[in-house]
Amino acid sequence: MATRIAVLVSGGGTNLQALIDAQGRGELGGGVLAAVISSKPGVYALERAAQAGIPTYVIPRRDYPSSQAMTQALVSQLKALDIQLVVLAGFMVILTQEMVQAFPHAILNVHPSLIPSFCGAGYYGLRVHQQALAYGVKLTGATVHFVSEECDGGPIVLQQAVPVEAGDSPETLQRRVMEQAEWRILPQAVALFCQNRLRVEGRTVHILPRQ
Ligand code: GAR
User: Fold this and answer.
1) Predicted local distance difference test score (pLDDT) of residue 1
2) Separation CA 84–CA 162 (nearest Å)
3) 105 flagged as catalytic
4) Mean of per-residue pLDDT scores for the chain
5) Segment 102-114, tens digit of pLDDT
6) 90: Cβ below 6 Å to ligand 1?
7) Sheet of 85-88: strands edge to edge?
8) Which residue from 80, 79, 84, 93 is spatially nearest to 38, judged by alpha carbons?
């Protein structure tokens, strides 16, 4: 049975597009993109999903009195859709523990730095690249990790380093990290999950050989 995947988004959805393109090439390890859920109405990611024929749902944070209530609504929707893998792809809401408890080691997040650098609460989107430039690092990159109850703290599945170049702005660095890292390792990690090739042991994710 194909792994049913939901992608959670809040913005432009270029990482969602990378997943759609990988599915089109038959490179999602047999997984199927079954739903796209946005925390914001009107975002371009919803357009990308509609163009690809993927059902879309909007669960706005402001419709709920607390993060916990929003998380519970999200979990109910994911369970109703019979989802087995949740992918956070530019999803800008921090979910509460009910989410991790409902999907243990079945939530992947892509983060635009080499964790544990430039991660945790307050590090999201362009801010991550602003901080990397301000610190003067010569290498940055992206990380795909399992989501745990600690923000950006779950076991690491894949990482890809990307050089910082002289004269980079947060925008040019963000673009390079997306092109050279995020859009590659996110579909790879999803495919590994769908092929049942990821085993978590403490903080370490073992990648099993292809059967
Ligand atoms: C991506 O760079 C993603 O890694 C980052 O937001 C961007 C979303 O772009 N996510 C975070 O910072 C989460 N902490 P997209 O909507 O075009 O995929």
Assistant:
1) 83
2) 31
3) no
4) 97
5) 999 999 999 999 9
6) yes
7) 56-58, 32-38, 4-9, 85-88, 107-111, 139-146, 156-163, 204-207, 198-201
8) 93
